[in-house]
């Protein structure tokens, strides 16, 4: 008997913005969703291919079905061409889907132009556009974010699961409605406090406002910057859990989240201060 599909989300990297990435205090490999026949890699920053190949269990780029670049900043796209080459055996096996904003394909091609010919399909992310990635699995970009370059968060839908990922952005009043109704909400939480237009990133205060409005079954903070090293990020997530009543965790490099058992992860986001073993287990790399 074939066992039911096991659905997971792997955090190859949790680094947010320039300094966390350039120091590699956190990794910058992006996320890999494994959903009902679709493996989707989002935002492969510098080192992503190395992180995938050294990850346990290994992420095999040749089995990735879709590569999603949410915007053309280095920490989201530094390894994009490397991943496209690995997905397609250097272009000899055209396969998979590449999704990116138009300015990341044309104005500043973060996948080099020669390699944009390698995937079987290239799709352009745009407000309200939905892409089918596998039977029953769709990715939709509900709204353009406020981040200086063309940027999209996304909603992923699979049978029985709806997830949202609010990527880099300044706070927008449209965010709660755009990401409403999700079971799992990922929030790129780069700073402790938002509200500073020099950075165009969400703070933990913005993340709390969003989590309180959307009320997913589980919220996860990721894309964490220098103000949110692991223990501070855990504390910020715990505060959000306490104040909103929504279980919230801070991601760690290498964490494999079991999407078929969100309540187990939610239970860890409980009411006590996070001990070393209370959060997602780190995998190698720099310690907290
Ligand atoms: Zn960015």
UniProtKB/TrEMBL annotation:
InterPro entries recorded: Metallo-B-lactamas (IPR001279), RibonucZ/Hydroxyglut_hydro (IPR036866)
Record SMART domains: Lactamase_B
Location of region: Disordered: 268-288
CDD domains named in the record: metallo-hydrolase-like_MBL-fold
Transmembrane parts of this sequence: none
Residue ranges of every copy of the Metallo-beta-lactamase domain listed in the record: 26-223
Official protein name in the record: Beta-lactamase domain protein
Organism: Anaeromyxobacter dehalogenans (strain ATCC BAA-258 / DSM 21875 / 2CP-1)
Lineage of source species: Bacteria, Pseudomonadati, Myxococcota, Myxococcia, Myxococcales
């Amino acid at each position: 008997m074939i066992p039911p599909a096991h659905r997971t989300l792997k955090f190859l990297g949790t680094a947010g913005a320039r300094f966390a990435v350039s120091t590699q205090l956190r990794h910058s490999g992006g996320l890999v969703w494994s959903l009902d026949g679709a493996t989707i890699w989002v935002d492969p920053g510098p080192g992503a291919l190395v992180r995938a190949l050294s990850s346990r269990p290994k992420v095999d780029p040749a089995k990735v079905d879709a590569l999603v670049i949410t915007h053309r900043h280095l920490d989201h796209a530094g390894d994009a061409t490397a991943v496209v080459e690995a997905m397609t055996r250097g272009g000899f096996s055209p396969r998979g889907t590449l999704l990116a904003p138009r300015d990341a394909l044309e104005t500043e091609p973060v996948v080099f132009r020669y390699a944009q010919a390698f995937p079987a399909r290239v799709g352009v992310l745009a407000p309200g556009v939905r892409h089918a990635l596998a039977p029953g699995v769709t990715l939709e970009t509900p709204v353009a974010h406020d981040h200086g370059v063309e940027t999209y968060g996304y909603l992923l839908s699979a049978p029985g699961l709806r997830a949202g990922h609010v990527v880099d952005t300044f706070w927008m009043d449209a965010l709660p409605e755009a990401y409403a109704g999700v079971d799992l909400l990922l929030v790129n939480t780069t700073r402790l406090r938002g509200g500073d237009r020099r950075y165009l990133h969400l703070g933990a205060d913005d993340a709390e406002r969003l989590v309180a409005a959307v009320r997913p079954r589980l919220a996860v903070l990721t894309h964490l910057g220098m103000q949110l090293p692991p223990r501070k990020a855990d504390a910020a997530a715990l505060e959000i859990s306490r104040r909103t009543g929504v279980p919230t965790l801070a991601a760690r490099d290498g964490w494999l989240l079991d999407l078929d058992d969100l309540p187990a992860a939610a239970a860890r986001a409980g009411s006590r201060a996070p001990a070393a073993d209370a959060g997602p287990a780190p995998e190698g790399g720099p310690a907290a």
